[in-house]
Amino acid sequence: MARILITEDDPLMLRMYQKIFTLEHYEVDTATNGEEALEKVRMNKPTLILLDIMMPKMNGLQTLDKLKANPDTQSIPVVMLTNLAGQQDAEEALLKGAVKYIVKSEHDPKQVVDMVKEVLAGYTRNTVPAAVEQTSAPAPASTPAPIVPPVTTELASTPASTDEPEK
Predict the structure, then answer these.
(1) Rounded to whole angstroms, how far apart are CA atoms 94 and 80?
(2) Which end of the chain is more exposed for a tag (fewer CB within 10 A), N or C?
(3) For the whole model, what pTM was predicted?
(4) Given a cut of 60, is residue 31 above it in pLDDT?
(5) For the chain, what are the domain ranges?
(6) Nearest one of 79, 125, 127 to 104, comparing CA atoms
(7) Which residue from 13, 1, 3 is spatially nearest to 104, judged by alpha carbons?
């Protein structure tokens, strides 16, 4: 069973996500700041970490830096779950090693669970999944073949001319 560490400083949000992931049969640990999250990771290594950005003591980006700098934790996929909707925040988190960036206000909790399931489905213990696209549209399986117009084989309607005189 997958173990999820939810790091969120808002007690209502934390309880809501803890409840929905528990109902989906995940083992759930919680932390209310980055320092506590790092301690929980050391005690009981999670399969995936949901990490808020705006938190006291140590924010989510600082926590992400520490997780990715440690060989024991760098392969744990981290999904940023935040209310910061700025493109710059998302790019920074993904560059630092997050595999997905989810804006809480744009998704209901069930959608968040579904996105986490997608990340976990592509995750193996020996590899870190590539960053997951922001949209939920599936990627095409392969590049479609280019459309080539049909070749016409019509004969010219006028007789072919030759340089030889008629006999």
Answers:
(1) 9
(2) C
(3) 0.72
(4) yes
(5) 3-121
(6) 79
(7) 13
